[in-house]
């Protein structure tokens, strides 16, 4: 009897069958995606769905634990869970067919559903998951049918010497197992070669000729302090932090890109890429910060943006006086809700940017167009891969993060950071230099103070700020340090007189507070 024969199979054989079938399925799914629907790879869509469905605490924990590697951690986690489930499905299929195959089918179904929920999914979105499911089910059936005992039970009388299978049966099983796994791996390799061989959007970005800036950004004398290890005044693009919900960076072809301004407006405005580039552009330097930044964290950067004012575009559309929010939408469905007065204020350089530090926006930073608003955290203002501005009201729609426990409004908080001495650096007593950056975008920083070993607060040297919209470097030279371990603390004073609070609060719901401190040994 089949069941009895298979119960004698060592458990790991059907588990391996499950793993091999999963490899074949995953490889087939990724390869199909690479060929017909690059945005709908089964891994990516499930990962993306998990990102969008995850409760706030899970996301906060992911960013805290893995920082900007959170996406790699997620994909690794999915792969591990998938392999465990596949092994279990293999074991199940050997004992209770067809339930192992049913598990594979359910996994594929989950992938297909996840694929259809993406804002940027095409008509073929479910095809990669469907192919993965079919291949997985088929491969599992084929390999499990070749489990040594199973075939022994079917084709010949039971081996009188015991339960061990005969050599040819085992070899045939191993051949199927290895062959299936190898085919899966090859398909996966092919898929990744195809994906990386597709440099279409890189080429499109390289071909962009940025519009001329009517006004160039400048750095005033005295804005840069010469301290080894201090954050550079302008953050190079390659070092600029990246935070977004996009597992796969959206690839937007400027030729098909449009910007639509609609909602509570007198007239809808629709612009093509060429029409957009014909608008007036200027450079402005603005420091962008993430609400998830912990005290002392690095989710902040300063760049020169080449942009066109949002207020002029809004004026063209004629926003209703009842509107109090602009919902900006990304091609991948992400949305941010920005108070309309921050966008219409002639005194605030809220822009739609095409350039970052002299280059077209890098793909990960929103190519071809993103919004940048001085003084507001990224999650309520800095929409990347921007396609739409909807003039609306806070009491009518919720933006992406507002539905996930973050505050509706997100003004940047007065804050400061110690860059130097770096962690583990050991300054010598004759020259202890402390240095870092402080920011209070759109209000400005008037002073930075340093506290050493719980002593009095002492005023640090403050560099010239580029503007109130950018961070400012500070430096303090400690001339009478004694050898041994010391602790330094920093706080900023805003141009509005506010003193940075020492009260420790976590990033949620509207940004961390507390003072950065650094322990260091003086030699
Ligand atoms: N499309 C899109 N735009 C987005 C986000 C996103 O998840 N999707 N995240 C926002 C958040 S939370 C921040 S802090 C900034 C980060 O911009 P950067 O990655 O260029 O530093 O982008 C904002 N724009
Ligand atoms: Mo953010």
Automatic annotation (TrEMBL):
GO biological process, one term: sulfur compound metabolic process
Keyword rRNA-binding: no
Gene Ontology molecular functions: heme binding; molybdopterin cofactor binding; sulfite oxidase activity
Organism listed in the record: Agromyces protaetiae
Name of this chain's protein: Oxidoreductase
Top-rank taxon, per record: Bacteria
Transmembrane segments: 72-92, 99-119, 125-145, 173-194
Domain Oxidoreductase molybdopterin-binding as annotated: residue spans: 247-396
Entry-linked Pfam families: Oxidored_molyb
Residues covered by region (Disordered): 493-523
Coiled-coil region list: none
Signal peptide boundaries: 1-33
Record keywords: Membrane, Signal, Transmembrane, Transmembrane helix
């Amino acid at each position: 009897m089949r069941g009895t024969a298979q119960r004698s199979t060592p458990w790991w054989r059907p588990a391996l069958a499950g793993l091999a079938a999963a490899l074949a399925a995953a490889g087939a799914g990724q390869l199909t995606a690479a060929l017909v629907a690059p945005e709908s790879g089964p891994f990516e869509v499930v990962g993306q769905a998990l990102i969008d469905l995850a409760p706030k605490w899970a996301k906060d924990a992911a960013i805290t634990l893995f920082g900007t590697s959170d996406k790699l951690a997620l994909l690794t986690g999915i792969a591990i869970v998938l392999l465990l489930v596949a092994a279990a499905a293999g074991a199940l299929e050997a004992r209770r067919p067809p339930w192992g195959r049913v598990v594979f089918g359910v996994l594929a179904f989950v992938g297909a559903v996840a694929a259809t929920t993406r804002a940027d999914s095409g008509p073929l979105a479910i095809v990669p998951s469907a192919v993965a499911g079919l291949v997985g089910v088929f491969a599992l059936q084929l390999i499990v049918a070749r489990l040594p005992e199973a075939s022994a039970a079917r084709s010949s009388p039971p081996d009188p010497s015991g339960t061990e299978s005969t050599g040819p049966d085992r070899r045939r099983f191993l051949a199927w197992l290895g062959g299936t796994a190898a085919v899966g791996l090859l398909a996966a390799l092919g898929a990744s070669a195809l994906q990386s061989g597709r440099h279409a959007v890189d080429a499109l970005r390289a071909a962009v000729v940025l519009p001329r800036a009517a006004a160039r950004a400048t750095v005033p004398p005295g804005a840069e302090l010469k301290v080894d290890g201090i954050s550079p005044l302008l953050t190079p693009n390659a070092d600029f932090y990246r935070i977004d919900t996009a597992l796969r960076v959206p690839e937007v072809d400027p030729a098909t890109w449009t910007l639509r301004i609609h909602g509570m407006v007198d007239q809808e405005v629709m612009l093509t890429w060429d029409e957009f580039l014909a608008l007036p552009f200027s450079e402005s330097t603005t420091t962008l910060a993430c609400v998830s930044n912990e005290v002392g964290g690095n989710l902040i950067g300063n760049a020169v943006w080449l942009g066109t004012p949002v207020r002029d575009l809004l004026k063209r559309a004629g926003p209703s006086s009842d509107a109090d929010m602009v919902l900006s939408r990304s091609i991948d469905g992400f949305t941010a809700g920005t108070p309309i007065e921050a966008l219409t204020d002639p005194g605030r350089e809220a822009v739609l940017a095409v350039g970052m530090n002299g280059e077209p926006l890098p793909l990960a930073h929103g190519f071809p167009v993103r919004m940048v608003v001085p003084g507001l955290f990224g999650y309520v203002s800095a929409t990347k891969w921007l396609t739409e501005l909807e003039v609306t009201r806070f009491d009518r729609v919720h933006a992406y993060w507002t539905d996930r426990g973050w505050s509706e409004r997100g003004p940047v908080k007065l804050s400061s950071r110690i860059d130097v001495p770096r962690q583990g650096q050991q300054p010598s007593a004759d020259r202890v230099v402390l240095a870092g950056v402080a920011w209070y975008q759109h209000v400005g920083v008037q002073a930075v103070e340093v506290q050493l070993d719980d002593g009095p607060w002492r005023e640090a040297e403050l560099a010239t700020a580029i503007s109130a919209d950018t961070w400012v470097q500070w430096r303090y030279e400690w001339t009478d340090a004694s050898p041994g371990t010391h602790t330094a603390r920093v706080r900023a004073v805003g141009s509005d007189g506010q003193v940075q609070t020492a009260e420790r609060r976590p990033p949620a719901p509207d940004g961390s507070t507390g003072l950065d401190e650094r322990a260091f040994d003086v030699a």
